[in-house]
Amino acid sequence: MGPQQTWLPGARCQERAPPKSDQDKEKRWAEMFELMDLNKDGHIDVLELRAGLAGRGLSRASVDRIVQAGDTNQDGVLDFEEFIQYLRNHEKQLKVMFRRLDRNNDGQIDASEIQDCLHSIGVNISLEEATRILLSMDKDGTMTIDWNEWRDHFLFNPLTNMEDVARHWKRSMMLDTGEQLTVPDEFTEEEKKSGFVWRQLMAGAMAGSVSRTGTAPLDRLKVFRQVHGSSDFRGNVLSGFKHMLREGGVRSLWRGNGVNVLKLGPETAIKFTAYEKVKSLIRGHDETRTLRVHERFVAGCMAGATAQTTIYPMEVLKTRLTLRKTGQYSGLADCATQILRREGVGAFYKGYIPNMLSIVPYAGIDLAVYETLKFAWLNRNRGVADPGVMVLVGCGAVSSTCGQLASYPLALIRTRMQAQASVKGAPRISMLSLLHNIITQEGIAGLYRGISPNLLKVVPAVSLSYVVYEYTRMMLGVDIEEGSR
């Protein structure tokens, strides 16, 4: 066992309730079966099990796995004997896990034992994170977990080892909203070698593609408002859509979406690769050290900057194609050719500086708000190991919104600079002079022009992204319960 940290309370349980006899325990399980069997037909189907376990924060995939594991006669439901046998078998697995964690064989698990055990299987967490896992199961406030607490907590959770528990608790749900994704997911060495990582990234890219396509009309309206300002593009969201429909019809609402989706795959791959490299540099010789939140933030920012630098010309093309009038460009290649011929290579990096500057406030606030909300929920809901999908999705939506509010003025200036068509060799307006012009002509509110459609798309973007993300992971054989970060 590793050295005990001085800040961790070392109190042990003085009086434990005697363990229930097998007869009492199975009587209680029989009562559970009776309660879950809503139609009293002697069987529990998936819908009844979901209803019975609704308060435990389990995903649909977890409940399905319980039925699959217990359904020995393959009839799609659990009868009484199958239900009881599943609980007996699962309890045996939980006992093995408990004994593996209880290194000093005192019948209790403390935070340092959780940390050491996870370290031995390649999952590195801090003592503070191990304590949070402990607190989620510690019902009597002793800062330790006894067998009864352990068994009762995981009895209906199909996780089979502590590595699963750690990933389950640590996983995040920072889904694509069409803006800058911040810090990539964390993966173990085992996951990297098994191909899990690329299946996970592929699921994220697919989810992002559908999400961006579904919210493309709102994104196009945002870009119009950012570029044209209050003088040229007045009215509310509805009048903005009417303007775009009059100019180009229904299909015009998706202008620029093709390149927006096309750049997602390479951006995700480059960001993940760069993130792993930067993490290695930060860790130095201690490759097993867990990165702290501010170190992950730095690594995420540097990875984001690397990815943005590589794919930035596609960002410029996306803006130009989004703003184009009917017949202006025949496609992506024609747009790139015209920009190159008229404005030169430098045009593909217009707005690059404000774009790089916007990464820091967006990533910093997004990550900080996300972690704060998740930990606040865990601290208020002790006894629940995992926040659950909807809590994580909600945290992601709120944190993304806060990140957008902080970085929006820089994003607006970047978009206006990208949209400026100029003659090759002509002087370009600088970021500071553009900022001065916006404040002088439109006031501070001008820096937030177009933010309403941008905020309107957060909820549908996150919802679409999650639904596609979950089903794509299932198709690729990446269970939703296999954690990430």
Summed up:
The chain is mostly helical and 485 residues long.
Largest sheet: 2 strands, antiparallel
Radius of gyration: 26 Å
Structural class: mainly alpha
| Helical percentage | 55-70%
CATH C-level class of the largest domain is Mainly Alpha
User: What low-confidence regions span 5 or more consecutive residues with pLDDT below 50?
Assistant: 1-19, 480-485
What is the residue-mean pLDDT, rounded to a whole number? 78
Portion in strands: under 5%
Number of DSSP strand runs:
4
- Biggest sheet strand line-up: 1-2
Give the CATH architecture of the largest domain.
Alpha/alpha barrel
Continuous helix count: 21
Give the termini separation: 25 Å
- Total separate domains: 2
Assigned CATH superfamily of the largest domain: Mitochondrial carrier domain
Shape: elongated
In quaternary terms, these chains amount to single chain
Annotation keywords:
485 residues, mainly alpha, Recoverin, domain 1, Mitochondrial carrier fold, 64% helix, Calcium-binding mitochondrial carrier protein SCaMC-3-like
Structure description:
The chain is mainly α and 485 residues long. The protein folds into 2 domains: 23-170, Orthogonal Bundle (Recoverin, domain 1); 189-475, Mitochondrial carrier fold (Alpha/alpha barrel), CATH 1.50.40. The protein has 21 helices and 4 strands. The protein has a two-stranded antiparallel ribbon with strand order 1-2. The chain has a two-stranded antiparallel ribbon with strand order 3-4. Helix 15 packs across helix 17 (352-380). The longest helix is centred in the middle third of the chain and has 31 residues, at 293-323.
